[in-house]
Please model this.
Amino acid sequence: MPDREHLLRITRRRGLGLVALLAPASVLAACSSEPPPDVAATPTAAPEPDVRQRAALDEVGLIALYDSVLASLPDADERRRAPLRELREQHVAHRDALDPDAVAASVVEPGDGEPVAPGLTDLADAERQAVKQRIRSCVDATDEQTARLLALIAASEASHVPAVRGLL
Model:
């Protein structure tokens, strides 16, 4: 059993994970009781949902990829399964912060005649690609809160790359 000091030590991975989990709270805290501005008077209001929705759909794809990799691992391989489940849950939190109505991914079960299930290398590559996509999304964002949220998600996903590679 780990000692108390070990449990209280904040590693970079735990810190980034905490930031990713707290990002939705910071978005909610930024809300005010003032009525929303007139959307017709704000020409940049329309593109914003697209940026968030695209990013949320990317998260749905990552969740599905994690599900597929987890389904391909033996049940006894808890050394890999536990951290992958934790990373997957971070992507669920990202999706929910971006667009809670994004379609949930289903578990992909490998079967006869289907391509080989993706592996950890594919997962690390997908995470690296997701970081690039989130950075581009930050540039496309038209409001500060969305750009900040996307930047936090990009930082979280950047930490996933070495975490997944460490499981190879």
Observations:
- The chain is about 65% helix and 0% strand.
- The first helix runs from residue 4 to 8.
- The chain has one domain: 47-165.
